[in-house]
Design goal:
The complex is a heterodimer.
Chain A lengths: L4 E6 L4 E6 L12 H11 L5 E4 L2 E8 L2 E7 L5 H19 L4 H6 L1 H11 E2 L2 E2 L4 H7 L34 E14 L5 E15 L5 E6 L5 H7 L14 E4 L5 H7 L2 E3 L4 E11 L6 E10 L3 E10 L6 E10 L5 E7 L3 E5 L4 E10 L3 E9 L14 E8 L8 E7 L7 E15 L3
Parallel strand pairs in A: 8-23
Antiparallel strand pairs in A: 1-2, 1-5, 3-4, 4-5, 6-7, 8-9, 9-13, 10-12, 10-22, 11-13, 14-15, 15-20, 16-19, 16-21, 17-20, 18-19, 21-23
Chain B lengths: L16 H11 L6 H4 L8 H4 L7 H27 L7 H8 L1 H13 L18 H9 L4 H16 L8 H6 L6 H14 L4 H15 L4 H6 L4 H17 L1 H6 L2 H8 L5 H17 L7 H11 L4 H12 L6 H11 L8 H15 L7 H17 L4 H17 L19 H14 L5 H11 L5 H17 L4 H13 L6 H11 L8 H6 L7 H13 L7 H10 L6 H17 L5 H12 L5 H15 L13 H4 L1 H6 L8 H7 L1 H8 L15 H8 L5 H5 L25 H12 L13 H11 L19 H8 L4 H9 L5 H6 L8 H10 L4 E3 L14 E3 L12 E5 L7 E2 L21 E2 L15 E5 L18
Antiparallel strand pairs in B: 1-2, 3-6, 4-5
Helix pairs in contact in B: 4-6, 7-8, 8-10, 13-16, 15-16, 16-18, 17-18, 18-20, 19-20, 20-21, 22-23, 22-38, 23-25, 24-25, 25-26, 25-27, 26-27, 27-29, 29-31, 30-31, 31-32, 31-37, 33-36
Classes of the chains: A alpha+beta, B mainly alpha.
């Protein structure tokens, strides 16, 4: 269940950096990786795990790099994939962005991180904040050499001791992304909310936090009945909740309280998911009249279906057009429309879209008289939006208690926003 | 003041990446979306004018350096050209070349004064000759700064694959420093070369020993009471065990590891668990007992996410004593389902799935638990695509094992336009598994949508899925057929015909009305699979299609342009047509047969011809019951392996005995089972124990893809896993040397074709479990598949003096064998069958023949097995000795595979296909098994 070796490859499959953890795999096997991947892609059978000649290659792609783990054993793939993503995250914290150039620029520190984050194929400390305290780029004299902070091996492995701030504050952001899929007939196939509570913690010492939500996480009912707003919107039933590792899960299971010692700085405290029966927040209908060989016309109607007091900002409706369409003409009373040939689509932008409104726009494109041979898919309409001070699920933060032994007062700040997630409406 | 002049103090200060990162993260405001926060520090103002303008001292130096380098390169290339006579240098060029040394000097100067701020990438660019020598000098320099730069260069060279092992002593010398960074660099180097230079590595040991007394744990651990050291030491034991297991056992390290499980520090516990699990996998030294489980469960709450995975994976190997304990463990680990890390979630699912097996199925606890399992799995589908993929492969297992868990969640598996193709394919699989009457309408409308997408493979699979739905949910078959028809009319017809074939087979005489619609769209068939299927339909329903002969004729026109599958199908279809309407199709059939046998180079095609001929040769076929014709197909795989054997027997079948041919060719169609490609139950149980691992992605037991010698032997709690190891062995035999074909709900193209081709010849016997027949090695199963007689047939056959192919099918007791030997045989091998296994709808193991001796009645251990073939028509001989583990105890089963090749002496046998084979047991009694590779090999 452990990785034998890790490689970072460039787009051509050349090794940029590698680390052999177990020595049971011939490091030359990585030369096979790129040809294999290309072959599988040609066959249409590419998958994130490739098996060849006794070796399993598990990989992810990030920017212009491949991160590949090889093993001869029956390893825990999910662990490896999660670890690779974690690696990317840590590298990004160190070098801002992870790409070929930054890897070459920082190979010494990458070797060190490879070493510190994994031992004999087993992931170790992977908290970027903690690693940055003792795996550093600059040379250090012995007198001042950083010791691994206690946190590396503590039960609280994500926070160091002795953090001091003059002003103690906590910022909470409740961000809900709406994933929606509707078919061309206007039926909503799927509609779910993926929420996330992000925090920025500016607190001294080892504070103990307790977060109260208006949740009604009752698993027994969730599966059977689906989510529902409680009476007078008092409670929200979350279908599935995921917590940052700082949250005491057993305590949550027993008492439903979210208690934790937070890491310093920004992190995602929890995420949750619930299926909604709520009307899609923004509904788009497009009537397409296609006159083959001459022109195609669109009539697009966008409707906001949330309460009138709220306003959606930065609404973008992306409507796909045939790749050979040309000479666009648009007409709309609200917002602006732009043709985006690189997306094979036009984008209708509405700065501010209050609830309960309906807007219209028309588009006209010319089509060439000779049709292209290529068959085109039917990409869906995408909608982007952001509704501040609003959660679709009705989730609210009731309280955030902060207790630290020095007894300072700390201010919690909360914001809510609903935005689009994977929001697709299929077209005819 | 000049326009665009930027005063020095206003120019942004150069920051290295770390500083920039630090200052940028401070300015980030909470609530800003992460992607905004990543925008980074603002670029220098000057950079607005010109992208790569020099701002810092470093930039200027670099620029100068690059300029000089360009000049030197230029001169060098000119020199080369002059040398080769390619270039007559102009006076100014000569002048330029003369200044080379000057540039070279400049370059080395600018190299030396390179400021430290320069990034590490520069170490990758030096490729001068004599580099090693230069590095050696630098390594021995007095200046620490220079030393460190040199070590960095060494490591850069190492990274790009250059051999810098010659510098070993010099680098090791650098180790004696108080500079941590330099020390770490040296360790990096050491780790790479210590193995290749063991003698020199000892030099480093002294320094290591000295380091051990260092007060800084970081330094000590690189070589107690600090947990950092203990957690590193724990993993170290696993490392040591990997290299020298006996040392670990003798020194009692394993017990020490066991003690570490009670360590106060959770990180130490996690690593100790990981190490113990690994050691236990290769050799069980410490049993996981309930006391240990308690320790682990306690540590679970405090570990890092990775530690939790190690612990959960270790728990998966534990078998609780009773229900109560199982339930207790379930309760204590189920909170982990709410962990943000997907690995923790899936490992929890694994343990829960295993433990649930121990609990009574109808208890409230189970109902609650299964309800808890669905939401986290659905959430995994919002993870990164790679993780989604693994989750889907696992959900595929879970849906087979416990369909209840996800039966309400059909919608989450609907395919999104922007899903990666591998995710789309897996979702489709699961959709079909979950399809039921109450959701079939939704599923069908989705599938129809997918059939208009661009990706050909995905479209094919979607269309096939429609066919599967028709078969799985009978009530929906009408709607499925209508959908398929619509697809044909909208010219989406990659494989529509294929799906139709399935439906025809499942519901004979129900939907044939659409044949006319199919025939109308013949001209748009581009895909070979679709053409083959269509030809099958025409042949099958020749009597209902008035112009069947014309249609087939139009295909025959381009016979040689078709691929083999289509040709084979065409051949069969024409023969069918002939048998149904012999009067007016004589010419056509003759034409096809001559095309196939005389003009074709393809052995398969000619072999197909033989099939017909053989039936004329063997009179038994006249009385052959219609359903028993499957034998003809059984040995197809073998045919391809012995291509030389091709003989033109085709003609005679039709000319000599059309009646027999009719019976065989027009035999009843096998039924199609509703659920195809379900994993064999014991394999499924085993895979459920490996949730989240590679095995669960490949849908294969670990032994099938990892080094068998080191395979972990994990037995499942689940009932019915007794046969696991046996299954594993067989699976290994079956999969060895073959690329890992993934099992999917929808048969792959090859399988489909094989199925199609076998259709006309296969018999209802195939109705027997179509689930992965490879795993089913029991003799009765084989007999069923082969359409063989049982033992009684065999005995009867054996007593017949004349050659009878029917008997030879059953087991080897041909006339050639002395009766006495047969008697002796019968004692030891109650019944032995020899034949090749054929998967009717699962898969066809290529070139495999099973010699099954499972009913041996030996009372004592047997050893020294050997196999010998008599001379035969094909020169078939074993390619290797049989490597049976000896001795074989009574009641024990073992499977070996034996490669054969066709390089032996050839002797024409009568009949051609007769082959004798002896299985020799050499130690005490010599037992001979005369077996025939039955005539049925040849179709």
């Amino acid at each position: 269940m452990s990785t034998s070796a890790l490689f970072i490859l460039d787009l051509k499959g050349n090794v940029v950096v590698s680390r052999n953890y177990r020595g049971d795999v011939d490091m030359a096997c990585i030369e096979k990786f790129m040809p294999l991947l290309v072959e599988k892609e040609d066959e249409g059978t590419a998958s994130p795990v490739i098996y060849f000649n006794g070796i399993s290659y598990t990989y992810i792609k990030h920017m212009n790099l491949y991160l590949v783990s090889v093993s001869k054993k029956n390893l825990n793939v999910v662990l490896v994939l999660s670890y690779l993503y974690k690696l990317v995250e840590v590298f990004c914290e160190y070098f801002k962005d992870l790409e070929e150039e930054s890897v070459r620029d920082n190979f010494v520190i990458i070797y060190e991180l490879f070493d510190e984050m994994m031992d004999f194929g087993y992931p170790q400390t992977t908290e970027g904040k903690i690693l940055q305290e003792y795996i550093t780029q600059q040379g250090h004299r012995l007198e001042a050499a950083p010791r691994p902070p206690m946190a590396v091996t503590n039960a609280v492995s994500w926070r160091s001791e002795g953090i001091r701030y003059r002003k103690n504050e906590v910022f909470l952001d409740v961000i809900e992304s709406v994933n929606m899929m509707a078919n061309a007939q206007g039926t909503v196939l799927r509609s779910e909310i993926v929420g996330s509570i992000r925090m920025r913690v500016v607190l001294s010492g080892m504070p103990e936090l307790r977060l109260g939500l208006n949740d009604k996480v009752i698993f027994q009912q969730a599966a059977a009945t689906g989510p529902r707003r409680g009476a007078a919107g008092r409670g929200v039933e979350l279908e599935d909740v995921k917590f940052h590792q700082c949250v005491r899960l057993s305590r949550f299971e027993a008492e439903r309280t979210i208690s934790f010692i937070p890491p310093d700085g920004e992190f995602e405290l929890m995420s949750y998911r619930l299926t909604t029966q709520v009307k899609p927040l923004i509904w788009v209908e497009a009537v397409v009249e296609k006159h083959t060989h001459s022109r195609v016309e669109y009539m697009v109607k966008a409707k906001s279906q949330f309460k009138r007091q709220s306003i959606a900002n930065h609404v973008e409706v992306v409507i796909p057009v045939p790749s050979d369409a040309s000479s666009p003409k648009f007409k709309t009373s609200v917002g602006s429309v732009k043709y985006a040939p690189e997306l094979n689509a036009f984008v209708w932008t509405i700065r501010s879209f209050p609830g309960g409104r309906e807007y219209l726009m028309r588009a006209h494109f010319s089509l060439p008289s000779i049709m292209s041979e290529e068959i085109e898919g039917k990409p869906p309409i995408h909608v982007k939006f952001e509704i501040p001070y609003y959660t679709t699920s009705g989730l609210q933060v009731r309280y955030l208690k902060i207790i630290e032994k020095s007894g300072y007062q700390a201010l919690p700040w909360v914001r809510y926003v609903t935005q689009n997630g994977d929001y697709q409406l299929r077209m005819n | 003041m000049k326009l665009r002049f930027i005063p020095q103090e206003e120019q942004p200060k150069y920051q290295n990446r770390m500083q920039a990162a630090a200052s940028a993260s401070k300015s980030a405001v909470v609530g800003i979306k992460p992607r905004d926060a990543l925008a980074g520090p603002r670029k220098a103002v000057a950079a607005v004018e010109k992208a790569n303008v020099c701002i810092t001292a470093k930039d200027h130096l670099q620029k100068k350096f690059d300029q000089v380098k360009a000049k030197v390169d230029d001169i060098e290339s000119m020199e080369k050209k002059v040398e080769s006579g390619e270039l007559q240098p102009m006076p100014n060029q000569v002048k330029k070349m003369a200044r080379k040394q000057e540039y070279l000097d400049k370059r080395s100067v600018s190299c030396n004064i390179t400021p430290r701020a320069m990034t590490d990438s520069k170490y990758f660019t030096t490729t001068k000759k004599g580099e090693i020598f230069e590095l050696k000098n630098e390594l021995n320099s007095d200046k620490k700064e220079k030393k460190r730069e040199a070590v960095k260069k060494v490591i850069a060279s190492m990274t790009v694959g250059k051999d810098v092992s010659a510098l070993f002593p010099d680098v090791v010398n650098c180790m004696q420093t108080d500079n941590v960074e330099l020390k770490k660099l040296v360790y990096l180097y050491l780790m790479n070369y210590a193995k290749s230079q063991p003698d020199l590595a000892i030099m480093a040991v002294n320094t290591f020993v000295k380091d051990c007394e260092d007060p800084n744990p970081l330094i000590r651990a690189l070589a107690d009471e600090d947990p950092y050291v203990r957690k590193t030491a724990a993993v170290c034991v696993a490392k040591l065990h990997d290299m020298n297991p006996t040392l670990v056992e003798e020194q009692g390290f394993v017990e020490l590891l066991n003690d570490l499980l009670s360590d106060a520090n959770p990180m130490v516990v996690a690593n100790a668990v990981a190490a113990l699990t690994e050691i236990n996998e290769s050799r069980p030294l410490i049993e996981v007992n309930s006391q240990m489980v308690n320790k682990l469960l306690t540590a679970l709450n405090e570990c890092t996410e990775w530690g939790q995975v190690f612990i959960l994976d270790a728990l998966a190997g534990y078998k609780p004593r009773d229900e109560r304990e199982a339930q207790n463990i379930c309760e204590r680990i189920s909170p982990r389902l709410a962990h943000a890390n997907a690995a923790v979630v899936l490992s929890t699912v694994k343990v829960l799935m295993k433990l649930v097996e121990m609990l009574p199925n109808d208890s409230d606890f189970i109902t609650q638990l299964t309800k808890k399992l669905a939401p986290p799995m659905v959430t995994l589908l919002s993870a990164e695509p790679e993780i989604q993929y693994v989750a889907l492969r696992n959900i595929n297992l879970i849906v087979q094992k416990r369909p209840d868990i996800l039966k309400q969640e059909m919608k989450v598996f609907f395919v999104k336009y922007n899903d990666p193709i591998y995710v789309k394919m897996e979702k489709l699989d699961i959709m079909i598994r979950l399809a039921q009457q109450n959701n079939i309408a939704q599923v069908l409308s989705e599938l129809k949508e997918y059939a208009t997408e661009v990706d050909v493979d995905f479209v094919r699979k979607s269309v096939r899925a429609i066919g599967r739905c028709a078969i799985k949910v009978e009530q929906s078959s009408e709607r499925c057929v209508a959908t398929l028809l619509e697809l044909i009319q909208t010219k989406v017809n990659y494989v529509v015909q294929e799906a139709v074939v399935d439906i025809f087979r499942k519901y004979p005489n129900r939907y044939e009305s659409i044949i006319s619609a199919l025939c109308e769209n013949l001209d748009t068939l581009d895909e070979p699979e679709a053409r083959a299927s269509m030809i099958w339909i025409i042949g099958e329903y020749a009597e209902r299609i008035d112009n069947a002969d014309e249609l087939l004729e139009s295909f025959v026109e381009g016979f040689h342009d078709e691929n083999t599958q289509v040709q084979l199908q065409l051949l069969t279809a024409v023969v069918k047509l002939f048998l149904k309407r012999p009067t007016d199709t004589q010419q056509l059939v003759q034409r096809v047969l001559s095309l196939a046998t005389q003009d074709s180079d393809n052995p398969d095609l000619r072999d197909r011809g033989q099939a017909f001929e053989m039936r004329t040769e063997f009179p038994f076929l006249r009385n052959w019951p219609a359903g028993k014709s499957s034998t003809f197909f059984v040995a197809r795989p073998l045919v391809t392996s012995i291509e030389e054997s091709s003989k033109y027997i085709y003609w005679r079948l039709l000319s000599a005995d059309p009646a027999a041919a009719k019976q065989v060719v027009l035999a009843e169609k096998p039924l199609i089972s509703e659920e195809t490609d379900l994993l064999e139950p014991s394999l499924l149980d085993q895979l459920v124990c490996h949730i989240g691992s590679l095995a669960s992605v490949y849908h294969k037991p670990p032994s099938a893809f990892i080094d068998a010698a080191r395979a972990p032997l994990r037995t499942g709690v689940a009932p019915g896993t007794n046969g696991v190891s046996q299954v594993e062995n067989q699976a290994t035999a079956a999969t060895n040397g073959r690329s890992a074909a993934q099992s999917t709900v929808i048969p792959s193209q090859d399988q489909m074709i094989a199925e199609l081709l076998s259709l006309d010849l296969n018999a209802p016997a195939v109705g027997a479990p179509s689930v992965a027949p490879t795993y089913n090695s029991a003799v009765p199963g084989l007999d069923d598949l082969l359409g063989l007689g049982d033992t009684s047939t065999t005995t009867a056959a054996a007593s017949q003096p004349s050659f009878d192919p029917l008997a030879s099918l059953g087991l080897g007791a041909p006339a050639a064998a002395p009766p006495a030997a047969v008697g002796g045989l019968a004692d030891i091998f109650g019944s032995s069958g020899l034949g090749s296994v054929v998967g009717s709808s699962g898969y066809v193991p290529p070139k495999q023949i099973w010699l099954d001796a499972s009913r041996a009645k030996a009372m004592q251990a047997m050893s020294g097995f050997a196999v010998q073939f008599n001379k035969n028509s094909f020169g078939l001989v074993p390619a290797e000795p049989i490597n049976a583990p000896t001795p074989l105890l009574p009641g024990q089963t073992a499977n070996y595979s034996l490669a054969c090749d066709a390089t032996g002496p050839v002797q024409k046998m009568e009949p051609l296909t007769n082959l004798q084979e002896k299985l020799l047991k050499v130690s005490s009694v010599i037992v001979m098994v005369y077996s025939e590779i039955i005539e049925n090999k040849f179709i």
